[in-house]
Structure formats: structure tokens, C-alpha cells
Specification:
Blueprint lengths: L8 E4 L9 E7 L6 E2 L4 E6 L4 E5 L4 E4 L8 E3 L3 E6 L9 H14 L3 H6 L10 H10 L17 H16 L16 H16 L2 E9 L1 H18 L5 H13 L8 E3 L2 E3 L6 E7 L2 E7 L7 H16 L13 E5 L18 E15 L2 E15 L5 H16 L1 H5 L1
Parallel strand pairs: 12-14, 14-15
Antiparallel strand pairs: 1-8, 2-4, 2-7, 3-6, 4-5, 6-8, 9-16, 10-11, 12-13, 15-16
Helix pairs in contact: 3-4, 6-8, 7-8, 7-9
Length: 405
């Protein structure tokens, strides 16, 4: 019989992504004995996507911390407790976890057991099996680090890393064979997702060159106002977020998602901004982008940028985007094609603003031009609908005053 359930609230390693099996505890933001409030940041966890902040689920005192910084912990495992007045850390909390795991194990069907190599006492996660098959790893040689010695993907990856390390240090002629650089977890996830998108989503691309004179003027006029009023700097990305979001109001298919072989129209416009972080790229979300003012957008984007840089993004910052902007203008890129992030229907690639010789009033002139490239999912919309969006977006960039004021 299981021990009685304690009223103390457990802090567990959360599942922040689909198919996540473990999380790396980067840091505790509170220490043992600290009083905490529901909703305030409690710890930082590294997943395949990024380092994210996890918030406290209740008020109380943090106690019973049993996972240190750097520990890789299975999802769902208790790593601490939140105590309220009169409560203590359950003395038998570890016994309770073990009993629950054993109870779950005994309820597994023969089919579930057959799905895993070895016996029930040596379970293997699906991701670990896939990695082992890809790299020719014999699972019987691995001692799992998960509950009941379950073999996790991290266990297999550690063996793969060790194999490459031994090969590099074996005294071979390194000039005669290429060096292998292992990808970080974020980079591996990017590789997997972009491959899936490129091979399963029918992309098509539309490009348009737009005169950015009015955009430059809008930033020069509104930037000082917003900085004085809100204390934030207005960037071209902020203007693009606002103009794209308001254009999406007139083109709901560009804000749609392809889910379960159907088109889902999204009620809210949540524009994601591709941001470079260490070893990869994340897409942080600006919610309610179609109704937020420029100052609000600039402040939110600035906060996201800083927290992405310092590895303090939260799960909500990366969730439920409906459209993405990827701006490489700051790297002096003129134009490029971006890969769609499923289940979104489109992504806009933005190049730098640069002076170019263009036709002007029957003659020629020099104007600051920006290249916009729209990547669209042909299952959701056709070329004509995407072209109408680009037409209206170009109009918004050429007259931001009418669109935003």
C-alpha cells in the first residue's frame, strides 16, 4: 500500500516541450529556506530548445532540495518541496516516489514491455532507442540513469560523445580525416525541425522590394517620443512587428496553422521574432501584436532580447506563435529565404535597408530599399492570397502613419 499523500507541494522537473524526457537544472533562483510567492521565478531548466525559467506553483517556503546545479533529472521527478505553515518535508518522499514508480511498472502491459529492449527493470525511452539504432549502439552495454535504471537519450548520447572523444585521442592522423563537431541540444533540435519542415511542408516564396523612406522617417519621428515616454528604443523590428500584425488582420490565412490535415484559423496574432542565442536560434513571441502600441511592442521585444541573451526565457515566451519574422538586416544581408516553423503557415524574411538605384517618376533615383521574402505553406494558401498580403504589407511600410496612428 502506498504511504498517505502529504499536503506539502512537490516541485518536479517539468515537461516544457513535447517528447521531453529529462531536463538539466541550470540554477536554483531561490535557496533552501527562502519564502517564495506563486508565479515568481524558482529555477532555470535547460531543454533541447533553450534555457527557461520555471515559476513557483504556490506560496510557501522552499525546502528539501535534492537536485544540484548541473543535474540532469527525469521529467516528473521530485526535486524539492514547497511547505506552508505547519508542514515538513515528507520523510518518506523518496520511498513514495519509488513505490509509485514500481506500481506504474507493474501495470505495464506485455505489449509495452515488448516495446522496450531488455526487461521491465531496464526500460528504454523511444528517443534513446532511436539514437542507439542510428549510431549502432548496443543498449545492453548501457546502465540507465533514469528511474529503475531506465536508459534515457542522455545516456546514449554520452556513449556517442565518448566514442568520438576516444577516436579523436587515439593518435590517428587528424590531418587525414575530418574532425567531428558534436551539436548542442539546441542545434540538434533545430536540425531536426528544419529538416522536417523542409521535407514535409510545401514551401513557396514571394519576394518584394519596398521603398523604406517612410519607415526611416517613422522611426526618426516616433523613436525619440517613445524613448522619452517609455524609456525604450524603437527598432525597425518593432515597426515591422506592428505593421505585419496589423496587415495580418486583413489576411487571416497568413496567421493560420496546419494541424491534423486541416487549416486552423487563429484568433490572436502572436508574432515570433527569430533571435540568435548561443548554439542556435529561438523564436520569442510578442502576444497581442495587432493591438499593442509601438511602445509596448518595443518594451516587450527588448525584454525578450535581454532574457534570450542571458538564458532566462520562460516557456510562455516560446509558445503558440502564429507568424514569424526573421530579420537579418543587422548582419548586412540583402535577402534570403526562411524555413517555415510548423504548424505556422508562413514566415517573413527581412533583409537590410540599403540605398539602391530605382525607377522614380519616369526617371531614376536613389532610394533606401528593403527586401521582403515571404515563405508560405501551399496547403494553407495559394500564391494569389500570399501576394495580396505582400501588397498590403508593402503599402503599410510605405505609409506607416496611416496604418499605426
Amino acid at each position: 500500500m502506498l504511504p498517505p499523500i502529504t499536503m506539502a507541494i512537490s516541485v518536479v522537473m517539468p515537461a516544457l516541450e513535447m517528447a521531453q524526457e529529462t531536463g538539466k537544472l541550470v540554477a536554483w533562483l531561490k535557496k533552501e529556506g527562502d519564502t517564495i510567492t506563486r508565479g515568481e521565478p524558482l529555477l532555470e531548466v535547460e531543454t533541447d530548445k533553450a534555457v527557461l525559467e520555471v515559476e513557483a506553483l504556490a506560496d510557501g517556503v522552499l525546502a528539501g532540495i535534492n537536485a544540484d546545479q548541473g543535474a540532469v533529472v527525469p521529467v516528473g521527478q521530485v526535486i524539492a518541496w514547497i511547505l506552508r505553515p505547519g508542514e515538513v518535508v515528507p520523510a518518506n518522499s523518496m520511498a513514495l516516489e519509488t513505490a509509485m514508480e514500481q506500481a506504474i511498472e507493474t501495470t505495464r502491459s506485455p505489449d509495452q514491455i515488448r516495446d522496450n529492449p531488455g526487461t521491465a527493470s531496464q526500460r528504454t525511452s523511444p528517443k534513446a532507442r532511436r539514437l542507439a539504432q542510428e549510431h549502432g549502439i548496443d543498449l545492453s552495454t548501457i546502465r540507465g540513469s533514469g528511474p529503475d535504471a531506465e536508459i534515457l537519450a542522455s545516456d546514449v548520447q554520452a556513449l556517442i560523445d565518448a566514442k568520438y572523444s576516444r577516436a579523436a585521442n587515439a593518435g590517428a592522423d587528424l590531418s587525414a580525416k575530418p574532425m567531428v563537431r558534436e551539436l548542442s541540444a539546441i542545434a540538434r533540435l533545430m536540425a531536426e525541425r528544419t529538416t522536417i519542415s523542409w521535407t514535409t511542408v510545401p514551401h513557396f516564396f514571394l519576394n518584394r522590394e519596398v521603398d523604406a523612406s517612410a519607415l526611416n522617417a517613422a522611426r526618426a519621428t516616433w523613436g525619440p517620443e517613445i524613448e522619452q515616454r517609455d524609456g525604450v528604443k524603437l527598432t525597425y523590428t518593432d515597426l515591422l512587428i506592428a505593421l505585419v500584425a496589423r496587415t495580418l488582420l486583413k489576411h487571416p490565412l497568413l496567421n493560420a496553422s496546419w494541424i491534423d490535415s486541416r487549416v486552423q484559423l487563429n484568433g490572436e496574432i502572436r508574432v515570433a521574432i527569430a533571435m540568435a542565442v548561443k548554439d542556435g536560434v529561438v523564436a520569442a513571441v510578442v502576444p497581442n501584436a495587432a493591438t499593442a502600441g509601438l511602445g509596448e511592442i518595443a518594451a516587450h521585444r527588448g525584454d525578450l532580447t535581454e532574457r534570450a541573451r542571458t538564458g532566462r526565457l520562460r516557456p510562455a515566451d516560446l509558445s503558440n506563435a502564429t507568424f514569424t519574422i526573421s530579420n537579418l538586416g543587422m548582419y548586412e544581408i540583402d535577402s534570403f529565404n526562411a524555413i517555415i516553423t510548423p504548424p505556422q503557415a508562413a514566415i517573413l524574411a527581412v533583409g537590410r535597408i540599403a540605398d539602391r538605384v530605382v525607377p522614380v517618376g519616369g526617371g531614376i533615383g536613389v532610394r533606401p530599399m528593403v527586401s521582403l521574402t515571404l515563405s508560405s505553406d501551399h496547403r494553407v494558401l495559394d500564391g494569389a492570397k500570399a501576394a495580396m498580403f505582400m501588397r498590403d504589407l508593402a503599402g503599410a511600410l510605405q505609409d506607416p502613419e496611416s496604418c499605426l496612428r
